[in-house]
Structure formats: structure tokens, C-alpha cells
């Protein structure tokens, strides 16, 4: 995973609530292997339907969006499409829980910021400092944001989740040995 | 004496292997269900070179890409066929029990898991599918995960999770006749919003919930994700135990007695505190359908769609206008009587036997005036429905009786609604393009979908029945 520390660049604003993962990547593309590259699947139907759709692949690294971004289907393909299209950070008032979890595992930073479209939408560029947890506007205004300490560490260091878990192998084995017998599926 | 705890807190505490300083816990996973779409997760596992830790707790089912028409011929679509074959190959390589296309137990993962007794109270169950919340109907902590998490569970049988907050939704009173579980959950989502339960696990409680059978409880928990919930749960009771008893993978004998004794301790203790509480009067819930492209855009069938001019601000105005334009509806139009082009009855929300019975009861002796597809949630549901003659009710009414799978809920198997067509659907998502590019979806109960099939328009089942 590519480590995430400091990112500055142009933004685009998608000021709509409830952008679901079916919009981010329509279901018909989910059958494609990741090696195919998911960049052109990003918002495929919205980009076809709306000539002036604000987010085209490989144009901006930062997306500012409306509330509940990434709600709906658990498809990690939504994150692959954003990442493959060059998006490294999405800022929105809130996110679908599964989407936010998937994002963190693929080096995509999600920042929860109340009223994000109103506060940031007028900016053309932003500077994001993940270690310092700040967003800087072109006029120098500094906005602090919150993020889970562990998610931050994984993003900053580009850590492998499974490798980290295996450190706890003994605790897992102990838990496994103490499971109630009824919890195992009875042999059919 | 220990502080009173919620159902969720008891299961969480029993599964936390270790907890970090930031409050994130490593949870033991009792059951992992995989489907064709889990190929990314298997790919990551292969890439890491790690073995699958507990194949005996992992179960594979083909549902998203399987055809709903005659299965005597190979799947014509090579990519879909490839994904169904890849799942079988991954299952064989890792020693996972697999319910493939030709299995007498095949079906939608959220229908088959409970049917086979794999879903039990007090367990933590995950699947790379957001509608995993369905299994919470059994008092199971069940939630959808992404592909990276699928790989993590395959390798470690565990998952790091930030502890969600708790939301209790109490529904007291008695549901009116012709008001179904689907109407209840659509009314809940309309009330709290599509992001109303983000970061929360929902517990559904109250006399109206207690009065429901297991399939209806599954319908409700299934759509918890449509309110943004991390999971949805219902306390297990005698209805739950009776439903599970005797199922293939459920415990038997002394293990069953020990299990039931443990399960009886699961319900939230009197005085347990939830982070949030919402109450809804069951008697106020009418047959409910969606008008827009988010599940929160739901109204009683007797309602009128909103007018953007009445919205409180520019953003809300734009959101309503955008949905009306996509749906091809006029501001302020009555829902009832809106012409519909086709009907879909099925899905992990409403593809179980009582759902099909409810639709058949409305359709019996009547004729559909528009095309429609009825897809049972599993081979077992199909078998039982055919034994009752439900298939004949549907086909005699002019609808197509299909083979089990996700089908037109998500269209991955090619069952698509044509661009611009309006579909009365018992599925769970009315998102733009969900049932096909440009497709217009109205979510509703099986009985309401049956009424729409007869009228060729959105109809109030109470006037037909």
C-alpha cells in the first residue's frame, strides 16, 4: 500500500448527498480483474449521462462530496475505481462505514468534515497533512480534522493489516481453543 | 452486580480477542460466507502466500452471477461463467464447502446460511456483501465487509473493528392487515434517513417485532444497511430457537441444550443503555414504497411525491429535482396509479417462502398485465413453493418462475430492467442504475409488487385484497 503523508493538489466538488457505490462503479464492471485497471469504470454511468460531470479519471487527487458518500454495496471496486483514477483523498460530512473501511485498506484517505462542500467547495486546491491532521485552504486557513489513530498509522506507514494481526496469533489461538462447542457448525 | 448490557455488547465482548488503546478490537469470526464476488479476496490471499486458516468455518455459495432461467445449458456469458467456476475452484483448493450451480442447497447466501443452520444466535458472521445484516435477525452480529477484509478473515479468522455505537428502534403496537415487514423497514428508513444509523448497530425491539416470524425479521435486518447501519439485530427468542432446531448444521442433543441456555442469556438486559433510541407506532405504518433513488425516499402508497419548490433549501431542492428527473415523475404526482413496466419478486430481502406466499395470495386467480419475474431465494424455497403450487399461481398469472439467485436485484447475471423502464421490485436498493442503466426502481413488499403486476401500475394492495 502506498504510504499517505502530505498531499496537495486541485479538488473537485460533487455536492450531492448519498453517492452510493453503485454510482461510483456500476455493478457490471465488478466482474473485471483488478489488473485490468478500474480507472475508466469510475462514475461510468454518471459521466455518460452528464456532459459536465465534475469528476473525470486522472484529473484531481482530492474529491469533496456530500453526506453519506459511499453508502450501499460493500464492493471494494468503488475504492479501486477512485484510486486507479488518481483520487487519493475524499472529504465529506459522512461516509458509508464499509466504504470508509475499504478506503483505508487501499491508501485512500477519507476525511469526515461537517459541511465539507460549503467550507471547501470554493477552493480550487487544498493541502492535506495527514500526520498533522490539517487541511490548508489557498488563503492559508487551517482546518483540523479527526481520524482514528490506527487508521492514520496504517495510511501513513502503508502497513499490511494481516501481518499486523498475526502478531496476535497466540491470543487468537487461545480464543479459538475456548470457543463453546455449540458454536462450530455441526457436521452435515 | 455487573452493569446491564445490550445484546450487541454481550456478543462483542465474547468475541474481542484483544482490544487496542484506541478501542478497536480484534474480533473472532465464527462464520465466513463467500460468493463469486469474493474473488478479489481469494486473489489477495494467494498473493500473500498465506493459508486459509479455518476452511471449516467458511462456506461458499454461487448467487450473484447464476442464471435465473433454465440451467440445463452452460452459462452463456463467459465472464459470469468464469466467476462461478473460479468460486468452485477456490473452494476446492482451500477445502471449503461449496454450494454451486448444481447443488440442491444453492441459493442466495443470506437465504441459504440461515436455512442450513449456519447462522446461529450469539455468533459473529461476516460476508463480502452489505446485506449480511440479514443474519442479525437471529441475534447474530453480522455485517458486510470489503475484499481486503475478506482476505483478512480468510487468513486469520478475525477482523479489526472499531466498536460501533448502539441504536434501539422500538416498534410497538400491531401492524395493520396487508402491512408487511418490508413496509416496516421502509418506514424506518424514511424516518431516520439513509445515513441515520451510520456508525451504529441497530437493535429492533418492541411488540410488533416480537410478533414477526423469522423470515419477516430477516427482511427488516436485511435493509439495516440501507439506513447506514453497521448491522441490525433482533433478540433471539422461542420463535428463533424453533426455526433453527433440526437444521443441518445447527447443534443437536446436549450441544443444542447448551446452546439454547447460552442464547437465552443474550437479549439486552433490563436497563441496558443504548446510545440512541427511536420509537415507531406499528399502527401508523401503511403499505410503503419508494419514489426516488435513495431508500429514504419512501412514502405511504397513498402519498404524493414531493415538490422541489417546497424544499427548505437549495441543496434539498436540487436533490429532490434530480431524483424526480431520473425517475420520470412530476413534482407532487400521486404514487398510486403511476404506470409500471415490469415486476421483480425475489432477492435476499423478500425471496423466502412467506414472501412468495404473500405475493401468490394476491395473484391467485388474477392476471398480470405487465411482464414479471419471480425468483425464489434458494433451491429449498423453490422446492417448498412448488410443493404448495405457488409456481403455478405465478405462471398462470403470466409471470416467469425463475431459478434461485440474486437476479434482477443487482442484474449481474444479465436480468436487467431496460433503460427508462419502471420496475415494481421487492429488492432492497432503488439506486440509479441498480437494476440496469437508466432503470427506475420502486421498492415495495411482495404483496404490493403483486398488486402492481395486476394493475400495471403502482397500486394499493388493500383495495385489491
Keywords:
heterodimer; A: 188 residues; alpha/beta; Aconitase, domain 4; 7-stranded mixed sheet; 8 helices; 29% helix; B: 465 residues; Aconitase, domain 3; 2 domains; 5-stranded parallel sheet; 17 helices; 19 strands; 33% helix; 17% strand; globular
How does this structure look, described?
Chain A is of the alpha/beta class. Chain A has a single domain (6-159), classed as Aconitase, domain 4 (Alpha-Beta Barrel), CATH 3.20.19. Chain A is built from 8 helices and 7 strands, in the order E-H-H-E-H-E-H-E-H-E-E-E-H-H-H. Chain A has helices spanning 21-24, 44-49, 77-84, 97-104, 116-120, 149-157, 161-165, 169-177; strands at 6-14, 62-65, 89-92, 109-112, 125-129, 134-136, 142-144. In chain A, strands 4-3-2-1-5-6-7 form a 7-stranded mixed beta sheet. In chain A, strand 2, helix 3 (77-84) and strand 3 form a beta-alpha-beta unit. The radius of gyration of chain A is 19 Å and the shape is globular. The N and C termini of chain A lie far apart (41 Å). The mean pLDDT of chain A is 95. Helix content of chain B is 33%, strand content 17%. Chain B folds into 2 domains: 7-276, 2-Layer Sandwich (Aconitase, domain 3); 288-464, Aconitase, domain 3. The radius of gyration of chain B is 21 Å and the shape is globular. Chain B is built from 17 helices and 19 strands. Chain B is α/β, with parallel strands linked by helices and 465 residues long. In chain B, helix 6 runs parallel beside helix 8 (214-222). The chains are: A alpha/beta (188), B alpha/beta (465).
Short overview:
The complex is a heterodimer of chains A (188) and B (465). Chain A has 188 residues and is α/β, with parallel strands linked by helices.
Q: What is the top-level CATH class of the largest domain in chain B?
A: Alpha Beta
Fraction in helix of chain A: 25-40%
User: In CATH, what is the class of chain A?
Assistant: Alpha Beta
Which CATH-level-2 architecture of chain A? Answer: Alpha-Beta Barrel
Number of separate structural domains of chain A = 1
Q: Which term fits the overall shape of chain A?
A: globular
End-to-end distance of chain A: 41 Å
Strand content of chain A is: 15-25%
Q: What's the CATH topology name of the largest domain in chain B?
A: Aconitase, domain 3
The third-level CATH topology of chain A is Aconitase, domain 4
Count interface residues per chain for the largest interface.
A-B, 56 and 80 residues
Query: What is the H-and-E element order of chain A?
Result: EHHEHEHEHEEEHHH
| Structure summary, number of beta strands of chain B | 19
Q: How many helices of chain A in DSSP terms?
A: 8
Structural class of chain A: alpha/beta
